[in-house]
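User: New here, please read:
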Amino acid sequence: MLLVNESTPTHTTFHNAKYSPDIEQIQISLIFIGDSQCYFSRVKEVRMVIDEFTSLNFNCQECVIKVVGLSVDENPVIAYKYLYELYEFDEYLIGGGWFGSGINHFVNAYGIQRSVPQYIVGIILIAHEKIVDEFIIKRFFSNQRALSWMENEAEEEIVRFIRDYQ
């Protein structure tokens, strides 16, 4: 099993495509993974991390910020209610527990430890209405570490990553 050190960026690409000058949109996403039964997935710091992320300014005309809520609850009704009460996410990935399609894409595919809460900062490059490339920039298994990074390093690190990729 591959364990990712949450203090180390994980520049992971799915498509191995080179930067295209035709990039129409750069989606900068925060994926929150939580569980309605987990105390640390329900505390006020979760909202603080999300609010801090949505307040970041990347000075990028093509950039769009998205916040995705992913619940590991088996029951999709419980999962949606939990996430909706937590924050009004741009997208919801719910149901299926630890083997749902969202978890398979963001956790199981990497052999990452299954724990909540978890935060993933990712970038998706879109050209000609297709995903050209997808990266995971950072992953956190702690509310406090995620919040600290959002407050102190996120803006600069994400801007640098986009600039270096271009």
Summary: The domain at 12-165 is CATH 3.40.30.10 (Glutaredoxin). The chain is about 30% helix and 30% strand.
